[in-house]
Amino acid sequence: MTLRDYNNIRPKVGKAVYIDESAVIIGDITIADNVSIWPLVAARGDVNYIKIGARTNVQDGSVLHVTRHSENQAQGFPLIIGDDVTVGHKCMLHGCRLGNRILVGMGAIILDGAVVQDDVFIAAGALVPPNKVLESGFLYVGNPVVKKRLLSEAEMSFLKQSAKNYTELKDEYLEQST
């Protein structure tokens, strides 16, 4: 695994975390317990911080980044990801806030200041513009995203199941690496 300091700040990693050796994790990043970071993920907490919640998985080729503090945005935009979040392959999360039990479809992009509340599906290839708020319990699709419909009970259950599936897969990878 590649953990790198930036300005003498080292990423903090919780218990039972799997970080693929090809991933790059730099700077002010806090990773909670039971998280999985898959091949070729780049996470750069250099000009602000990143927090990744428990049982979250960040899949292959995704990019996690932040926005620096400025005159127009005193706090900048950190990247905060909640618990039980599935970030699909090749996603871009930039200075946004994701709640709990979210599925970010493959290739989706979520930009600065966007807020995704709990229990949300974001379709593959979707673009969430800056400062957009996605409300709990809905499916969002398109470029830019639009609220499509309420999630079914089965879809709501799948949000937690997806995170559980990746937690189990992560455990298999950790077992093989010892």
Overview of this structure, please?
It comes from Agaribacter flavus. This is Gamma carbonic anhydrase family protein. InterPro entries: LbH_gamma_CA-like, Transf_Hexapept/Carb_Anhydrase, Trimer_LpxA-like_sf. The model has no long low-confidence stretch (mean pLDDT 96). 13% of the residues lie in helices and 37% in strands. The two termini are 14 Å apart. It is globular. The longest helix has 24 residues, at 153-176. Strands 1, 2, 4, 6, 8, 9, 11, 12, 14, 15, 17 and 18 form a 12-stranded parallel beta sheet that branches. The protein has 178 residues and is mostly beta strands.
Return the domain count.
Answer: 1
Strand elements, count: 20
Q: In the CATH classification, which architecture applies? A: 3 Solenoid
Alpha-carbon Rg, integer: 15 Å
Stretches where pLDDT is under 50 for at least 5 consecutive residues are none
What is the CATH third-level topology name? UDP N-Acetylglucosamine Acyltransferase, domain 1
CATH class: Mainly Beta
Please state roughly what percent of the residues sit in beta strands, choosing from under 5%, 5-15%, 15-25%, 25-35%, 35-45% or over 45%: 35-45%
H/E element string? Answer: EEEEEEEEEEEEEEEEEEEEH
Mean pLDDT: 96
Protein name: Gamma carbonic anhydrase family protein
InterPro entries: LbH_gamma_CA-like, Transf_Hexapept/Carb_Anhydrase, Trimer_LpxA-like_sf
Organism: Agaribacter flavus
